[in-house]
Amino acid sequence: MLIAITGGIGAGKSVVSSILRALGYPVYDCDSEAKRLMVASAPLVEGIKELLGDDAYFPDGSLNKAFVSSRIFSNPGLVASVNALVHPAVLRDIERWASETDRDECFVETALLHESNMTSIIDSVWTVTAPVETCIARVMKRNSMSEEQVRERISNQSNDRITNAHVIINDNVQPVIPQVLKLLLLK
Fold first, then answer.
1. Residues 150, 5, 128, 76: is their CA dihedral positive or negative?
2. Nearest to 8 by CA among 139, 120, 122
3. Around Cβ 131, how many Cβ atoms within 10 Å?
4. CB contact set of 184 (below 8 Å; sequence gap of 6+)
5. What does the pLDDT look like over 104-150, one tens digit per residue?
6. Once rounded to an integer, what is the mean pLDDT over residues 169-187?
7. What angle do CA 2, 4, 8 make, to 5 degrees?
8. What are the residues facing 2 on neighbouring strands?
9. pTM of this prediction?
10. H or E segment to which residue 169 belongs
11. Residues of the chain above pLDDT 90, percent
12. Backbone region of residue 89 per phi and psi (left: phi > 0; alpha: psi in -120 to 50; beta: other values)
């Protein structure tokens, strides 16, 4: 069973993932694995170079994040083109990873559930939520960003309501661990 952990920026997806890892469950972090694949997957590297040019990578093979960000975030078409390369590579990697785990339940932490077409491979969704002001404060502290920058990121996120999702409330009031344990018993 493949279970997605999703939610907006600052909601607490990583908190839930950390709890699950501490309990011995495998968790695939889409954000960090996408970054890994963007330097480790030769077809992906070539595709990104075709879209953005050789300057997308430093001579040592590492991704030139500043260059890539400057190119794609000013051009929505390029964002879509890069995502069209990265998302399928991540989906294939998730399937490979899940097939190699020795657990029946695997978790995938993702902020881009629908945008990445991940709904095609998952069996269940856990959505982590928190009040917007709480999310803003967390991200400002964690990423050293201004409130305006965080609000802009939040406004750019998909606000799709996910039907049939299990909800974990991470509002600094309700304890998260009992909610996770309860959901683990439901599967």
1. positive
2. 139
3. 14
4. 23
5. 899 999 988 888 889 999 999 999 999 999 999 998 988 888 888 88
6. 93
7. 175
8. 106
9. 0.88
10. strand 166-169
11. 72
12. alpha
